[in-house]
Amino acid sequence: MYCPFCRNPDSRVVDSRLSDDGSSIRRRRQCTECGRRFSTMETASLSVTKRSGVAEPFSRSKVISGVRKACQGRPVTDDDLAMLAQEVEESIRASGAAEIDANDVGLAILAPLRRLDLVAYLRFASVYQAFESLEDFEASIAQLRSEAQQQPAGRSAAAGS
């Protein structure tokens, strides 16, 4: 880590603290050359491997843009999408993997999207679960209906839809 003041490549850590959400570490450093202090934020990198084999950094904005298409015309706010993207990132990071397949990201989106909006869930699932016919949609809808009937009254998965 270079000192932002004198560009010296050597510094020592004075203090380390976890961020509020625990996903990064804030370090207070002191330059061994000029003695000035500065802060750094360290996060673990998370790479997504695409079908082509190319790896790129995980991006919440890509999760949001992909889900936004499925939510088109649905009562889903930008805040809802931001919370969903955060939940997806947290679940992926919790797996402990430094690299994840793009399809696995899509699959990680399904559960939170299902809780958010069932129609958007079906749209998104049709891509990631490779629906090939009307029967695939019918089977998924039948499963959702069956699960909704098994939930206690007042706790519908489609609440607000």
What does this entry look like structurally?
With 161 residues, the protein is an alpha+beta fold. 44% of the residues lie in helices and 20% in strands. It is built from five helices and six strands, in the order E-E-E-E-E-H-H-E-H-H-H. The longest helix has 17 residues, at 78-94. The N and C termini lie far apart (50 Å).
What's the arrangement of strands in the largest beta sheet?
Answer: 1-2-3
Instruction: Determine the strand fraction and express it as a percent band.
Output: 15-25%
Gyration radius from CA atoms, angstroms: 22 Å
String of helices and strands: EEEEEHHEHHH
Distance between the termini: 50 Å
* Total strands: 6
* Biggest beta-sheet profile: 3 strands, antiparallel
Topology:
Layout: E1 11-18, E2 24-31, E3 37-43, E4 47-49, E5 55-57, H1 60-70, H2 78-94, E6 99-101, H3 102-116, H4 118-128, H5 134-150
Parallel strand pairs: 4-6
Antiparallel strand pairs: 1-2, 2-3, 4-5
Helix pairs in contact: 1-2, 2-3, 3-4
List the defining traits of the structure above:
single chain, 161 residues, alpha+beta, three-stranded antiparallel beta sheet, three-stranded mixed beta sheet, 5 helices, 6 strands, elongated, disordered C terminus
Please provide a brief summary of the model.
44% of the residues lie in helices and 20% in strands.
